[in-house]
Amino acid sequence: MHTRRHFLGLTAGLSLAALAGCGTTGAAPAASAPKAGGRLRAAFAGGGAKEVLDPHLANLFVEAARSKALFDKLADLGPDVSAQPRLAERWEPDATLTRWRITLRQAAFHDGRPVRAEDVLASYARILDPNRAFRAKSSLALVDLANSRAVDERTVEFALERPFIEFPNALAAFGAYIVPAGAEDFAAPVGSGPFRFVSFEPGKSVLLKKNPDYWEGAPHLDELEFVIANEESARANALLGGQVQYAHDLTPTTARSHTGSDRMAIHRSPNSAVQAFAMKLDRPPFDDRDLREAMFLLADRPQLVESVLAGSGQVANDLFGKGYQYYADDIPQRARDLDKAKFLIRKAGAEGLTVKLDTSTAAAGMVEAATVFADQAKGSGLTIEVVTGNKDSYWADTLKNGSLSSFRSGAMPIETHIAQRLLSDAGTNVTKWSRPEFDDLYRRAVSTVDGAERGGLYAEMQRSLHAEGGYLMWGFADWIVGASPNVGGISTAPANTLDWARFDKVWLG
Amino acid sequence: MSLRRYAVRRLAIGAVQVLAVVTVVFLLVQALPGDAAVALAGDNPDPRRIGEIRAAMGLDRPALDRFGSWLWGLAHGDLGVSLVSGRPVVAFLLDGLGPTLVLAVLALVLLVPLSVLLGVVAALREGGVVDRITTAITVGLHSIPEFALAVVLIALFGVHLRWLPPTAVGADLLAQPAVLVLPLVVLLARPVCSISRLVRAGMIDALASDHVRHARRLGIGAQRIRFAHALPNALAPAVQQVARTTDWLLGGVIVVEAVFVVPGLGTILVDAVAARDLPVVQGLAVVFAVTTVLVNLVADLIGFRLAPRSVAIA
């Protein structure tokens, strides 16, 4: 998902400096018990007038949050980033794991029509249309639509092209929303979600009202309005000025200076975004395992978390998905060891070498992290030279070019992370990790029914990534949201998961 | 050459200029790294998916071919559709034009009388207390960049004192005029300074000129000399500066739009360039180029009316 760069980064700092003298102290009053009614205005960064309400085209955080308010998926990601049933009441694979029977919940679209098996098949057919490029397409690519069928109104049977125990992850994929069969015009979208559509002004606002008949119970709020403010400082100011009650995606600096304020309550969702450097294994100099280990040992992770994330995060251990299902918690945490790093750099024959570290402002904190890391490498024999590239084409550029680059990723199941980034034929394999035995472990894991055995295979994959992989993952950033102190029910589940931006559970006290 | 022939000729040159601007913009956007498909794919740059997006957007056609058909459309008054959303470019321009026009028109309505008044008062009391105070304030204000002034005003009046809304987020500008106060102050700060300084200098020159001295010798009243004889001459140089300011305002002042959350033309431009949404960028280039040509033509014509000798019509 895109994070918008704050091109006026300076203004946030200045605004804070100006405020420092007039800050108020005292803890924010806790929001009261759930209360019905009212309109909540939520400020998000947006994509301007090109924004769309088609949930299959959703790309930005604001589009994901709006899609979630208007539509449902068959499954979504729970607090441990594993798939939880949503519109699907339950799922049962057959013994081969290639046929999945999905029973739909009794739910209705906003126009009163029931959500049927046919709508599910039509939605997936739309996403898989070979002439289009919807984001969820790659996740659903293993669905064999021709051989899938509607058993009855509320039962779908999916045929898969290969055994896949993690099929619920695909049902929960970003953008895999269920729309009424035949829906193509989303000017006034009709979904099955907790809110109904009222009005849309691209690049400015979307107004929704509560769906009293929502299958999971009606939302507390009467109305929900998404407004667009691209600058982080503007979102914070609008919240402080009482113009909005929820400001999405604030910086750690803003959070730090408003902790304990009576005008802004800070909500942190830990483990929301991993911060990393990606080394490419298919080319010098990081085709040398010793040099990769030297890099792992050069990073002073606590210092990176403290300086780049302003303390709003935790150190990482070169593995994706801390706190998520299957995360290998038992692997010891790496710490800085300059002497050993120097030794390994000499051993790899890399003494005196200068390596370019590609970075950009495509995601918050990347340039800062690159600069701090380059500083940490001083005196090791290896020189890291930070090169700032174009933010708009950054991810495509660093997928192909260079040998070392800044990286960050939002939450997704560990299985999805592996499938998209670490298999030989993965589409976004930035570290060029390509090992037949690893691919084989993955294939075995996703076709293993027994949970404990599968867990063992995931642990083995993570051990090999930790020892020899190309991702130097140094931190997990908190996702930071600001809200008026009277707003209750804001969850701290990781961004991108079900309970993130879950406005049907929020109330105005 | 008559004024009318002059205007027609300027318009013809203007059309060529617009075409040149649009071509240069097209080439510049082509020269940027990445295209709309790469920008849209973002942090999920699977080459297969980028290829599919590119095909869906028609970006697999040669650049010249796309530019040619866009120009052909332009000749028919069709600005095309956004690559990313498929919405007509005209809809984007209309969305952004509203907020930009509201700010620009209000700023100009306040700017012209205010700066002329300040300039005249300072000139008539040249070297006096009023002159020195206005000079100090205007020179000081002029040296503060828009964003710095905006941030300070928001922090003080929007957040700390809560006198005014800190942003215009989600607001209907005309229905809630309070949201316009801080952006207008920021937009006015620098132009008021530069234009009032020009009026002051022009007025001082005009009051010392031969024809004003001659008018005095003829016994014409002081007020009439100041406002009917000196002022029009003093305004001619300021008109050019007002034109430049108008052009700047109509382009959508990006910094002010961003800090105050006013979704005008500047915001649309920033978003369109970041998304490499070429048809939208080109549509904006047409609008900006046409505005510049027209504003400058009008300024020249007004300048000619005010002081026929001061504008060289070649």
CATH class assignment of the largest domain in chain A: Alpha Beta
**Could you tell me the strand content of chain B as a percent range?**
under 5%
Tally of domains of chain A: 3
CATH topology of the domain at 89-274 in chain B: MetI-like fold
- Indicate the overall shape of chain A: globular
Spans of chain A with pLDDT under 50 lasting ≥5 residues?
Answer: 1-29
CATH topology of the largest domain in chain A: Dipeptide-binding Protein, domain 3
Strand count of chain A: 21
Mean pLDDT of chain B: 89
Query: Structural class of the helices, strands and pairings of chain A?
Result: alpha+beta
The major beta sheet of chain B can be summarized as:
none
What CATH architecture label of the largest domain in chain A applies? Roll
Based on CA inertia axes, which overall geometry of chain B fits? flat
Instruction: Give the fraction of residues assigned to helices of chain B.
Output: over 70%
Largest sheet of chain A: 9 strands, mixed
Question: Can you walk through the features of this model?
Answer:
- Chain B: The chain crosses the membrane at residues 101-124, 136-161, 173-193, 248-274, 280-299.
- The complex is a heterodimer of chains A (509) and B (314).
- Chain A is α+β, with helices and mostly antiparallel strands and 509 residues long.
- Chain A has 15 helices and 21 strands.
- Chain A has helices at residues 9-20, 61-70, 117-128, 137-140, 167-171, 232-240, 252-258, 289-298, 301-308, 338-347, 366-376, 394-400, 414-421, 436-445, 451-468; strands at residues 39-44, 72-73, 75-77, 83-85, 88-93, 99-104, 149-152, 155-159, 177-178, 195-201, 205-210, 223-228, 246-247, 265-279, 313-315, 354-359, 383-388, 404-410, 471-483, 487-488, 507-508.
- In chain A, strand 3 and strand 4 form a beta hairpin.
- In chain A, helix 8 packs antiparallel against helix 10 and helix 14 (436-445) runs antiparallel to helix 15.
- Residues 1-29 of chain A have low confidence and may be disordered.
- Chain B has a domain at 89-274: MetI-like fold.
- Chain B contains 13 helices and no strands.
- Chain B has helices at 3-31, 36-41, 47-57, 63-75, 89-124, 129-142, 146-160, 178-207, 210-217, 222-250, 254-260, 265-274, 278-306.
- Residues 310-314 of chain B have low confidence and may be disordered.
